[in-house]
Amino acid sequence: VLAEALPEERAFEAALRPKTLEELVGQERVREQLALVIDAATARGRTPDHVLLSGPPGLGKTTIAMIIANQLTAPLRLTSGPAIQHAGDLAAILSGIGEGDVLFIDEIHRMSRPAEELLYMAMEDFRVDVVVGKGPGATAIPLEIPPFTVVGATTRAGLLPGPLRDRFGFTAQLDYYEPADLHRIVLRSARLLELSIDDDAAREIGSRSRGTPRIANRLLRRVRDYAEVRAGGHVDHAVAQAALELYEVDQLGLDRLDRAVLQALCGSFGGGPVGISTLAVAVGEERETVEELAEPFLVRLGFLARTPRGRIATPAAWQHLGLAAPSEVAQ
Ligand code: ADP
User: Which of 47, 155, 212, 314 is catalytic?
Assistant: First the structure.
Protein backbone atom coordinates (compact mmCIF):
# COMPACT_ATOMS: atom_id res chain seq x y z
CA VAL A 1 0.00 0.00 0.00
CA LEU A 2 1.66 3.21 -1.15
CA ALA A 3 0.60 6.57 0.20
CA GLU A 4 0.75 8.23 -3.22
CA ALA A 5 -2.58 8.45 -5.03
CA LEU A 6 -2.87 5.83 -7.76
CA PRO A 7 -4.41 6.95 -11.08
CA GLU A 8 -7.56 4.82 -10.68
CA GLU A 9 -7.97 6.24 -7.22
CA ARG A 10 -8.21 9.91 -8.20
CA ALA A 11 -11.94 10.06 -8.93
CA PHE A 12 -12.69 8.14 -5.76
CA GLU A 13 -10.53 10.52 -3.74
CA ALA A 14 -12.13 13.56 -5.32
CA ALA A 15 -15.55 12.34 -4.19
CA LEU A 16 -14.37 12.05 -0.59
CA ARG A 17 -12.45 15.32 -0.37
CA PRO A 18 -13.71 17.76 2.23
CA LYS A 19 -14.69 21.02 0.52
CA THR A 20 -14.57 23.41 3.46
CA LEU A 21 -12.38 23.86 6.53
CA GLU A 22 -15.34 22.77 8.68
CA GLU A 23 -15.57 19.46 6.84
CA LEU A 24 -11.86 18.78 7.30
CA VAL A 25 -11.43 16.23 10.08
CA GLY A 26 -8.68 16.76 12.68
CA GLN A 27 -5.69 19.13 12.25
CA GLU A 28 -7.48 21.61 14.55
CA ARG A 29 -4.57 23.99 14.90
CA VAL A 30 -3.88 24.18 11.15
CA ARG A 31 -7.59 24.66 10.51
CA GLU A 32 -7.84 27.52 12.96
CA GLN A 33 -4.69 29.21 11.70
CA LEU A 34 -5.77 28.91 8.09
CA ALA A 35 -9.23 30.24 8.82
CA LEU A 36 -7.56 33.35 10.29
CA VAL A 37 -5.26 33.81 7.30
CA ILE A 38 -8.21 33.53 4.92
CA ASP A 39 -10.63 35.68 6.93
CA ALA A 40 -8.07 38.43 7.50
CA ALA A 41 -7.23 38.60 3.80
CA THR A 42 -10.90 38.60 2.83
CA ALA A 43 -11.65 41.41 5.31
CA ARG A 44 -8.81 43.48 3.89
CA GLY A 45 -9.79 42.70 0.33
CA ARG A 46 -6.26 41.45 -0.33
CA THR A 47 -4.84 38.14 -1.50
CA PRO A 48 -3.64 36.07 1.45
CA ASP A 49 0.01 35.29 2.21
CA HIS A 50 1.62 32.43 0.38
CA VAL A 51 1.04 29.15 2.20
CA LEU A 52 3.49 26.27 2.58
CA LEU A 53 2.09 22.88 3.61
CA SER A 54 4.55 20.22 4.63
CA GLY A 55 4.04 16.64 5.69
CA PRO A 56 4.02 13.06 4.43
CA PRO A 57 1.85 12.06 1.44
CA GLY A 58 -1.87 11.51 1.93
CA LEU A 59 -2.38 13.84 4.91
CA GLY A 60 -4.49 16.43 3.06
CA LYS A 61 -2.17 18.96 1.40
CA THR A 62 -3.99 18.96 -1.94
CA THR A 63 -7.31 18.95 -0.13
CA ILE A 64 -6.32 22.02 1.87
CA ALA A 65 -5.12 23.87 -1.25
CA MET A 66 -8.52 23.21 -2.82
CA ILE A 67 -10.29 24.39 0.30
CA ILE A 68 -8.26 27.62 0.35
CA ALA A 69 -9.25 28.41 -3.24
CA ASN A 70 -12.83 27.39 -2.49
CA GLN A 71 -13.11 29.62 0.59
CA LEU A 72 -11.60 32.52 -1.35
CA THR A 73 -13.88 31.73 -4.31
CA ALA A 74 -10.73 31.95 -6.39
CA PRO A 75 -9.71 29.84 -9.36
CA LEU A 76 -7.21 27.10 -8.52
CA ARG A 77 -4.34 26.20 -10.80
CA LEU A 78 -2.55 22.95 -10.15
CA THR A 79 0.99 22.07 -11.05
CA SER A 80 3.92 20.25 -9.51
CA GLY A 81 7.66 20.63 -9.04
CA PRO A 82 8.59 17.82 -11.44
CA ALA A 83 6.50 19.53 -14.16
CA ILE A 84 8.55 22.73 -13.78
CA GLN A 85 12.01 21.82 -14.95
CA HIS A 86 12.86 25.03 -16.79
CA ALA A 87 12.33 28.63 -15.75
CA GLY A 88 10.34 28.91 -19.00
CA ASP A 89 7.81 26.33 -17.77
CA LEU A 90 7.11 28.51 -14.78
CA ALA A 91 7.08 31.72 -16.83
CA ALA A 92 4.36 30.19 -19.01
CA ILE A 93 2.27 29.39 -15.92
CA LEU A 94 2.84 32.82 -14.40
CA SER A 95 1.84 34.61 -17.57
CA GLY A 96 -1.58 32.94 -17.35
CA ILE A 97 -2.23 33.89 -13.71
CA GLY A 98 -5.26 36.07 -13.01
CA GLU A 99 -5.76 38.38 -10.05
CA GLY A 100 -6.40 36.47 -6.83
CA ASP A 101 -5.70 33.05 -8.36
CA VAL A 102 -4.40 30.28 -6.13
CA LEU A 103 -1.46 28.43 -7.64
CA PHE A 104 -0.93 25.01 -6.07
CA ILE A 105 2.54 23.58 -6.57
CA ASP A 106 2.77 20.00 -5.33
CA GLU A 107 6.24 18.61 -4.55
CA ILE A 108 7.56 22.13 -4.75
CA HIS A 109 11.00 20.95 -3.56
CA ARG A 110 11.46 19.16 -6.89
CA MET A 111 11.51 22.29 -9.08
CA SER A 112 14.77 23.13 -10.81
CA ARG A 113 16.99 25.78 -9.22
CA PRO A 114 16.45 28.46 -11.93
CA ALA A 115 12.68 27.96 -11.71
CA GLU A 116 12.87 28.29 -7.93
CA GLU A 117 14.62 31.61 -8.24
CA LEU A 118 12.04 32.87 -10.67
CA LEU A 119 9.26 31.72 -8.36
CA TYR A 120 10.48 33.49 -5.28
CA MET A 121 10.88 36.73 -7.22
CA ALA A 122 7.33 36.36 -8.49
CA MET A 123 6.08 35.64 -4.98
CA GLU A 124 7.77 38.72 -3.57
CA ASP A 125 7.48 41.36 -6.26
CA PHE A 126 4.68 40.04 -8.52
CA ARG A 127 7.05 40.82 -11.32
CA VAL A 128 9.80 38.79 -12.95
CA ASP A 129 12.31 39.20 -15.74
CA VAL A 130 11.98 36.41 -18.22
CA VAL A 131 15.27 35.87 -20.00
CA VAL A 132 14.88 35.01 -23.65
CA GLY A 133 17.82 33.68 -25.64
CA LYS A 134 21.35 32.86 -24.55
CA GLY A 135 24.75 34.57 -24.35
CA PRO A 136 25.29 38.16 -25.51
CA GLY A 137 22.00 38.20 -27.42
CA ALA A 138 19.89 37.33 -24.37
CA THR A 139 17.23 39.85 -23.41
CA ALA A 140 15.22 40.18 -20.23
CA ILE A 141 11.53 40.76 -20.78
CA PRO A 142 9.71 42.07 -17.72
CA LEU A 143 6.50 40.23 -16.85
CA GLU A 144 4.01 41.82 -14.47
CA ILE A 145 1.88 39.34 -12.53
CA PRO A 146 -1.33 40.29 -10.71
CA PRO A 147 -1.38 39.54 -6.96
CA PHE A 148 -1.87 35.80 -6.46
CA THR A 149 -1.31 33.19 -3.77
CA VAL A 150 1.07 30.27 -3.97
CA VAL A 151 0.17 27.18 -1.99
CA GLY A 152 3.22 24.96 -1.97
CA ALA A 153 3.28 21.36 -0.77
CA THR A 154 6.35 19.42 0.22
CA THR A 155 7.06 16.24 2.13
CA ARG A 156 9.65 18.10 4.21
CA ALA A 157 10.00 21.88 4.58
CA GLY A 158 13.74 21.36 5.12
CA LEU A 159 14.10 20.30 1.49
CA LEU A 160 13.35 23.85 0.31
CA PRO A 161 16.16 26.36 -0.04
CA GLY A 162 15.97 29.15 2.56
CA PRO A 163 15.17 32.03 0.19
CA LEU A 164 12.15 30.21 -1.21
CA ARG A 165 10.96 29.04 2.19
CA ASP A 166 11.16 32.62 3.48
CA ARG A 167 8.65 33.82 0.88
CA PHE A 168 5.87 31.86 2.54
CA GLY A 169 4.04 34.02 5.08
CA PHE A 170 2.32 31.00 6.55
CA THR A 171 3.71 27.50 7.01
CA ALA A 172 1.71 24.57 8.30
CA GLN A 173 3.25 21.29 9.30
CA LEU A 174 0.72 18.50 8.87
CA ASP A 175 1.13 15.64 11.23
CA TYR A 176 -0.11 12.07 11.21
CA TYR A 177 -3.72 11.77 12.40
CA GLU A 178 -4.84 10.36 15.71
CA PRO A 179 -6.82 7.07 15.64
CA ALA A 180 -9.97 8.97 16.74
CA ASP A 181 -9.69 11.28 13.70
CA LEU A 182 -9.17 8.36 11.34
CA HIS A 183 -12.17 6.66 12.85
CA ARG A 184 -14.23 9.76 12.01
CA ILE A 185 -12.77 9.93 8.49
CA VAL A 186 -13.74 6.30 7.83
CA LEU A 187 -17.29 6.93 9.11
CA ARG A 188 -17.57 10.07 7.00
CA SER A 189 -16.32 8.31 3.86
CA ALA A 190 -18.64 5.35 4.44
CA ARG A 191 -21.56 7.77 4.70
CA LEU A 192 -20.59 9.44 1.42
CA LEU A 193 -20.25 6.02 -0.22
CA GLU A 194 -23.58 4.92 1.27
CA LEU A 195 -21.83 1.96 2.81
CA SER A 196 -23.30 0.46 5.94
CA ILE A 197 -20.57 -0.04 8.54
CA ASP A 198 -20.42 -0.74 12.28
CA ASP A 199 -18.68 1.71 14.55
CA ASP A 200 -16.07 -0.81 15.74
CA ALA A 201 -15.32 -1.84 12.16
CA ALA A 202 -14.63 1.80 11.25
CA ARG A 203 -12.39 2.08 14.28
CA GLU A 204 -10.46 -1.03 13.23
CA ILE A 205 -9.88 0.33 9.71
CA GLY A 206 -8.83 3.70 11.14
CA SER A 207 -6.34 2.14 13.51
CA ARG A 208 -4.63 0.25 10.68
CA SER A 209 -4.32 3.33 8.47
CA ARG A 210 -0.91 4.45 9.74
CA GLY A 211 -2.13 7.90 10.60
CA THR A 212 -2.98 8.69 6.97
CA PRO A 213 -6.43 9.61 5.60
CA ARG A 214 -5.55 8.46 2.08
CA ILE A 215 -4.76 5.00 3.42
CA ALA A 216 -7.92 4.99 5.54
CA ASN A 217 -9.99 5.65 2.42
CA ARG A 218 -8.07 3.07 0.45
CA LEU A 219 -8.53 0.37 3.07
CA LEU A 220 -12.21 1.24 3.30
CA ARG A 221 -12.51 0.69 -0.43
CA ARG A 222 -10.90 -2.76 -0.18
CA VAL A 223 -13.14 -3.65 2.75
CA ARG A 224 -16.18 -2.49 0.78
CA ASP A 225 -15.25 -4.83 -2.11
CA TYR A 226 -14.89 -7.70 0.30
CA ALA A 227 -18.18 -6.93 2.04
CA GLU A 228 -20.06 -6.69 -1.25
CA VAL A 229 -18.76 -9.95 -2.63
CA ARG A 230 -18.63 -12.07 0.51
CA ALA A 231 -20.79 -10.53 3.19
CA GLY A 232 -23.93 -9.08 1.66
CA GLY A 233 -22.61 -5.51 1.71
CA HIS A 234 -22.60 -4.75 5.43
CA VAL A 235 -19.27 -4.17 7.17
CA ASP A 236 -19.08 -5.47 10.71
CA HIS A 237 -15.91 -5.95 12.73
CA ALA A 238 -15.29 -9.52 11.55
CA VAL A 239 -15.70 -8.53 7.90
CA ALA A 240 -13.27 -5.63 8.30
CA GLN A 241 -10.75 -7.87 10.00
CA ALA A 242 -11.01 -10.64 7.42
CA ALA A 243 -10.68 -8.18 4.53
CA LEU A 244 -7.64 -6.46 6.03
CA GLU A 245 -6.02 -9.80 6.63
CA LEU A 246 -6.62 -10.77 3.02
CA TYR A 247 -4.93 -7.57 1.85
CA GLU A 248 -1.99 -8.18 4.19
CA VAL A 249 -2.42 -5.14 6.36
CA ASP A 250 -1.45 -6.20 9.85
CA GLN A 251 -2.75 -4.99 13.20
CA LEU A 252 -0.27 -2.15 13.43
CA GLY A 253 -1.03 -1.10 9.85
CA LEU A 254 2.21 -2.48 8.42
CA ASP A 255 1.79 -3.47 4.81
CA ARG A 256 3.83 -5.64 2.56
CA LEU A 257 6.46 -2.99 1.79
CA ASP A 258 6.99 -2.17 5.46
CA ARG A 259 7.43 -5.82 6.31
CA ALA A 260 9.75 -6.35 3.32
CA VAL A 261 11.96 -3.50 4.56
CA LEU A 262 12.08 -4.92 8.07
CA GLN A 263 12.72 -8.42 6.79
CA ALA A 264 15.56 -7.25 4.53
CA LEU A 265 17.04 -5.19 7.34
CA CYS A 266 16.97 -8.05 9.84
CA GLY A 267 17.31 -11.02 7.49
CA SER A 268 19.80 -9.88 4.85
CA PHE A 269 21.73 -7.27 6.80
CA GLY A 270 21.71 -8.68 10.32
CA GLY A 271 19.79 -5.68 11.65
CA GLY A 272 22.08 -3.10 10.06
CA PRO A 273 23.52 -0.57 9.92
CA VAL A 274 22.78 -0.44 6.21
CA GLY A 275 22.46 2.47 3.79
CA ILE A 276 18.99 3.45 2.57
CA SER A 277 19.91 2.88 -1.11
CA THR A 278 21.11 -0.65 -0.41
CA LEU A 279 17.97 -1.35 1.57
CA ALA A 280 15.79 -0.03 -1.27
CA VAL A 281 17.55 -2.27 -3.81
CA ALA A 282 17.03 -5.25 -1.51
CA VAL A 283 13.25 -4.75 -1.53
CA GLY A 284 13.15 -3.81 -5.23
CA GLU A 285 11.84 -0.30 -4.69
CA GLU A 286 12.95 3.24 -5.42
CA ARG A 287 14.98 4.83 -2.67
CA GLU A 288 12.40 7.63 -2.44
CA THR A 289 9.56 5.18 -1.93
CA VAL A 290 11.31 3.51 0.96
CA GLU A 291 12.49 6.79 2.41
CA GLU A 292 9.19 8.66 2.20
CA LEU A 293 6.61 5.93 2.68
CA ALA A 294 7.95 3.03 4.70
CA GLU A 295 10.68 4.62 6.76
CA PRO A 296 8.83 7.45 8.55
CA PHE A 297 6.20 4.99 9.68
CA LEU A 298 8.74 2.41 10.86
CA VAL A 299 10.65 5.13 12.71
CA ARG A 300 7.42 6.33 14.30
CA LEU A 301 6.64 2.80 15.50
CA GLY A 302 10.15 2.58 16.96
CA PHE A 303 11.13 -0.31 14.66
CA LEU A 304 13.85 1.44 12.73
CA ALA A 305 16.43 4.05 13.67
CA ARG A 306 18.48 6.32 11.46
CA THR A 307 22.10 6.47 12.55
CA PRO A 308 25.08 8.21 10.91
CA ARG A 309 26.27 4.76 9.73
CA GLY A 310 22.92 3.70 8.29
CA ARG A 311 19.56 2.26 9.25
CA ILE A 312 19.32 -0.20 12.10
CA ALA A 313 16.52 -2.41 13.37
CA THR A 314 15.47 -1.96 16.99
CA PRO A 315 14.71 -4.92 19.29
CA ALA A 316 10.99 -4.14 18.79
CA ALA A 317 11.40 -4.79 15.05
CA TRP A 318 12.92 -8.21 15.63
CA GLN A 319 10.16 -8.98 18.04
CA HIS A 320 7.46 -7.91 15.57
CA LEU A 321 8.92 -10.28 12.99
CA GLY A 322 8.96 -13.03 15.60
CA LEU A 323 12.75 -13.27 15.48
CA ALA A 324 15.38 -13.14 18.20
CA ALA A 325 17.55 -10.02 18.06
CA PRO A 326 21.30 -10.74 17.62
CA SER A 327 22.13 -9.41 21.08
CA GLU A 328 19.65 -11.84 22.59
CA VAL A 329 21.17 -14.70 20.59
CA ALA A 330 24.63 -13.82 21.91
CA GLN A 331 23.49 -13.90 25.53
P1 ADP B 1 -1.79 14.97 -0.01
O2 ADP B 1 -1.97 16.08 -0.99
O3 ADP B 1 -1.21 15.43 1.30
O4 ADP B 1 -1.03 13.80 -0.55
P5 ADP B 1 -4.68 14.66 -0.23
O6 ADP B 1 -5.11 16.05 0.04
O7 ADP B 1 -4.69 14.26 -1.68
O8 ADP B 1 -3.24 14.39 0.40
O9 ADP B 1 -5.62 13.68 0.62
C10 ADP B 1 -5.72 12.30 0.31
C11 ADP B 1 -7.12 11.79 0.59
O12 ADP B 1 -7.35 11.83 1.99
C13 ADP B 1 -8.22 12.59 -0.06
O14 ADP B 1 -9.16 11.72 -0.64
C15 ADP B 1 -8.90 13.34 1.06
O16 ADP B 1 -10.28 13.29 0.88
C17 ADP B 1 -8.54 12.54 2.30
N18 ADP B 1 -8.26 13.46 3.41
C19 ADP B 1 -7.08 14.08 3.65
N20 ADP B 1 -7.16 14.84 4.75
C21 ADP B 1 -8.40 14.70 5.24
C22 ADP B 1 -9.08 15.22 6.39
N23 ADP B 1 -8.47 16.05 7.25
N24 ADP B 1 -10.38 14.88 6.57
C25 ADP B 1 -10.98 14.04 5.71
N26 ADP B 1 -10.40 13.50 4.63
C27 ADP B 1 -9.12 13.82 4.38
Answer: 155
Mean of pLDDT values over 178-205: 97
Angle at 50 between CA 100 and CA 70, to 5 degrees: 50
Q: Is 16 in the pocket of ligand 1 (CB under 6 A)?
A: yes
CA distances (Å), origin 237, targets 66, 222, 231: 34, 14, 12
Q: How confident is the model at residue 138 (pLDDT cuts 50, 70, 90)?
A: confident
The span from the CA of 76 to the CA of 63, in Å, is 12
For residue 213, which of 245, 184, 240 has the smallest C-alpha distance? 184
Report whether pLDDT(330) > 50: no
Q: Distance between terminal CA atoms of the chain?
A: 37
Is residue 69 within 8 A of residue 24, CB to CB? The reply is no
Q: Which of 28, 63, 218 to mutate to test the pocket of ligand 1 (most atoms within 8 A of CB)?
A: 63
Cα 46 to Cα 23, 38, 72, 101, 167: the distances in Å are 25, 10, 10, 12, 17
Pairing of β 170-173 and β 127-132: unpaired
Alpha carbons 67 and 23: distance in angstroms, whole number: 10
Is the ipTM reported for this complex over the cut 0.85?
yes
The predicted-structure confidence for 241-264, as pLDDT tens digits, reads as follows 999 999 999 999 999 999 999 999
**What's the gap in Å between 23 CA and the centre of ligand 1?**
11
